[in-house]
């Protein structure tokens, strides 16, 4: 089945020779057969639903299957719906707490691990272990920790700080509590990415700084962090997207409450879809979420392409 | 991962696939033989029997008893949690996959009927006259019966008498009594009553009874508009907000759940547990030391009113023609005198049949039976559950002092009207 | 898949396809290089103290779950007292609460079957996309990669309607099928296969090996490191997934552990039972982590960021 000369140069331009053409065709057929299952899966479970989401968002789609074409009505309704803006505000507020929190925690963890000479494997495992849990598990644990009669309030009571209504108080407190849970569960992953970035920094630069007499803080601020900037930016975008999709912890811990204080965009979508069965409207919310994530992804992609050109 | 691990995983996967295939093949039904009823019926039941283990045992027993009577029918009773019951059943209806029979409230039945999610069950009721008329009426829409009543629920006040005796107070019976007692008890750090404001709780067991007591209603009589933003509605919410402000409700009422363990009631810091169900009497009593707890009539303001719904077993649109007779057989079994007597004893609920005695004896059950007279089975409207979901967070806002009662109800009414328009 | 699920491996992909950088065949190991900063161990005290504090923050809640799960049901427990004795009663009893064993089995099927099918289909596609020339290859590749930018929630409703239309609600196949479209897996494996040396394939061709045999006998063994890494992550994502199982598995037949746990967290179940269930749900992930820790850490550190 082989034509020795062609085999030696895979990009050979030996078209026209009959054996070559046959082998080409065989290769194409084999390639298509290998990729076929994946194509089928993606067409059916990605492309059709994406098109479906766009189409459904233009209709009223009822529980019993009745479909009415509405045009852009779902979108005009959405942009006039105070709950949409409220859920967007809640989500933005959450992101604004969650993202800085998880970046600081994972960066601090990575910096500390990077300094260790010994036992870094043990600590790395201890810091990473919450990442293995589900958001549901994290939510159950922390709901108990945050409870009015839970351990955290017992401790705060002990030092006279009184019970803090972590999940039932002011909106910002509820969002901060939720962000903390998500950061607890998720920071191990970002921490390892930061750690990889730190390990990749050339030791010589740091040595030079040390010889120049730069202190720890100065060296971090002027050398480590600037070198780490692309990684920070990368983690920033990833965690922002994660933040925009917050749902599981809210579902387990607050149910979107109290008084819609944690009523996030995805919770809004879930409610409209699976509580009110307003499928068309829920699809429109999904399209808006898609637009947000798309913009964030494009910013990220642009940044990385820009970096390549340098 | 070594190759051996991968192979193990693949074997496990293949086994799993084979199993799921079996499961879906098993769904086909054998044809009926010589008049014997046959088919498969899945039924969703909820914790009407509070104790998890007792509940499991009771329904497993019911399943076995039924299948002994009807060997051709494969009955599966799945026990589901009350939380998110509405979403769950709605999703099953949307997917056309799930229970043939499900326990619903009258307003849920109305909601599902609107989208063709429930079917008439009149044929499964031999003699409607053995039931309390109200239990049948609650599930009757346009002259068709959409739910077989299998028990009658009743919510009423449960009083910690020690609290009132210690403070030298009469047990409050009207709103005015409550408002009078509240500041006295608040001085001792005790809330005169509790209120379960969590959005997981149906408003039928939180806000609506107060709305009805104020003389208001959720919907207008013809069901085309909401009416909870009336002056009666505002009065009801003001009553709760005023109580909250004067320490007459526990601090976290806006988000409080119905869990007894760890609640202010269990700490002896609540005078009256509102909207208590018969099955909660024993645990409520146990939580405060086993005595000094009794049932009382619901509060009176403009009228005396409470929530008391029949538990309706509805036949869903998921039920296929070939399983219809089998589903009817299950419904007949559930509405039999024998079964309802057992259920009544196990759950502490009243039966929906006139010929089944009260589930217990003594003062509590006399009071509960008397409270039945004031029971409102909820307001069945096709949009009832959606309106409830829209209204609940606004009530939380009012209790948390973020909105005034008028503002909260006005905004909720705007939203609810949007829902009604789209329905 | 959940949000995190579809995102976790954005990392390699968005790095613009430079990874994995390690030579295929040699397993991806974490960098073993030790750099001494500040000379001797003298500067080690405060980072260790700080790490101990952070470790307490990460591990203490999990320890609390273990203690609560092993506490007698009615005994006073943390924060008010330490349990006077430990018991396995809760763990035994939890297997009688709801349909717990069934949920566990469903989670296992959902995770394991998905891992096997995702890895199989994705490596086949990756092999073709990296090594075979056929019309539309680039279109296929970039269409798959483009789906990374579509959050799963955006297609939740139409996917649900579609599966419901096929009668897939409350079935395991309905749960599994839509999660098999895993663009990260295709992309990551493709990078790996592309970097395999050409000579291997030339040799196979000269030996007259068929396509399928080349794939099974040459490609699969060589890409084992990346498959191991993906296996772990795909397992974790499915095992921990909530939103999709929540909408598709309304009934016990297809309810997974996460959905079941979320439903336990109410009303009638005691706290110690919930914690026992939570603990059991965590054990498989912990076991996998302990056994395969090296791969998890290596995959993120070596392929996470372009250098």
UniProtKB/TrEMBL annotation, chain A:
One GO CC term, this protein: plasma membrane
Q: Which CDD domains match?
A: TM_PBP2
| Chain segments annotated as transmembrane | 28-48, 92-113, 125-146, 166-184, 227-247, 279-299
Residues making up the signal peptide according to the UniProt record: none
Subcellular location field: Cell membrane
Q: How does it sit in the membrane?
A: Multi-pass membrane protein
Give GO BP annotations, semicolon-separated: transmembrane transport
- An example of a Pfam family matching this protein is BPD_transp_1
Q: What is its main location?
A: membrane
Q: Which UniProt keywords apply?
A: Cell membrane, Membrane, Transmembrane, Transmembrane helix, Transport
- Disordered: annotated span: 1-22
**Residue span, ABC transmembrane type-1 domain:** 88-300
Q: Which PANTHER family match?
A: ABC TRANSPORTER PERMEASE PROTEIN, INNER MEMBRANE ABC TRANSPORTER PERMEASE PROTEIN YCJO
State the similarity comment.
Belongs to the binding-protein-dependent transport system permease family.
Q: What's the protein called, per UniProt?
A: ABC transporter permease subunit
From TrEMBL, chain B:
Kindly give the InterPro entries that the UniProt entry links to this protein. Answer: SBP (IPR006059)
MF-aspect GO terms: maltose binding
Q: Does the keyword Signal apply?
A: yes
PROSITE patterns from the entry? PROKAR_LIPOPROTEIN (PS51257)
Its GO biological process annotations read: maltodextrin transmembrane transport; maltose transport
Q: A Pfam family for this UniProt protein?
A: SBP_bac_1
Please tell me one Gene Ontology term that the record gives under cellular component.
ATP-binding cassette (ABC) transporter complex, substrate-binding subunit-containing
Mind listing the UniProt keywords for this protein, alphabetically?
Signal, Transport
Which stretch is the leader sequence? Answer: 1-23
Could you say which protein family the record assigns here?
Belongs to the bacterial solute-binding protein 1 family.
- This chain belongs to the protein called Extracellular solute-binding protein
